[in-house]
Amino acid sequence: MKKRTQRHDVIREIVRGDQIRTQRELAEKLQAQGYDCTQATISRDITDMGLLKSQEGFYVLPEDMRMQRMVADLVEDIHTTLQLVVVTTAPGAASGVAGAIDSVGIPGALGSVAGDNTILLAAASPEDATRIMGTLNGLRRR
């Protein structure tokens, strides 16, 4: 069971870091990290983790897809100052968007506080705040 959990963590990192289109590509990435998996194991992992295919044909995590949709549909503005990221949403949407962002676990994000239409994200450093703002801006519809 421990090996399976570790493998799932590695799959999360791979899917978030690379554009993976096929099970074969995923198997190659896993093998490069020391996991020798059969196609059946990878297929089960994809099902167990609920991986989805994006419109572009890449595997994505369900929580990432949820955050992407919410940010695209509900975020109106994003600003950063020092180690803080301030996100303005549609009225009443801040709590849901903050929950989606928190569930993804963006590296460098320490936590969030949400009001009615504003989210305050605390970052580990000013550089992390800038990177988080860039990530969220990249998901927004213009």
Describe the structure.
Strand 3 and strand 4 form a beta hairpin. 53% of the residues lie in helices and 20% in strands. It folds into 2 domains: 59 residues, Orthogonal Bundle (Arc Repressor Mutant, subunit A); 76 residues, Gyrase A, domain 2. The longest helix has 16 residues. The strands form 2 sheets. Strands 3-4-6-5 form a 4-stranded antiparallel sheet.
CATH C-level class of the largest domain: Alpha Beta
What is the CATH architecture descriptor of the largest domain? 2-Layer Sandwich
Measured as a percent range, the helix fraction is 40-55%
pLDDT < 50 stretches: none
Count of separate DSSP helical elements: 6
SSE string: HHHEEHEEHEEH
What strand order characterises the main sheet?
A: 3-4-6-5
Keywords, separated by commas or semicolons:
two-stranded antiparallel ribbon; 4-stranded antiparallel beta sheet; Arc Repressor Mutant, subunit A; 142 residues; 6 strands; 2 domains; Gyrase A, domain 2; alpha+beta
List the topology elements.
Blueprint: H1 2-17, H2 23-32, H3 39-49, E1 52-53, E2 59-60, H4 62-74, E3 75-81, E4 84-89, H5 94-104, E5 109-114, E6 118-123, H6 126-139
Antiparallel strand pairs: 1-2, 3-4, 4-6, 5-6
Helix pairs in contact: 4-5
Concise description?
With 142 residues, this protein is an alpha+beta fold. Helix content is 53%, strand content 20%. α4 packs antiparallel against α5 (94-104).
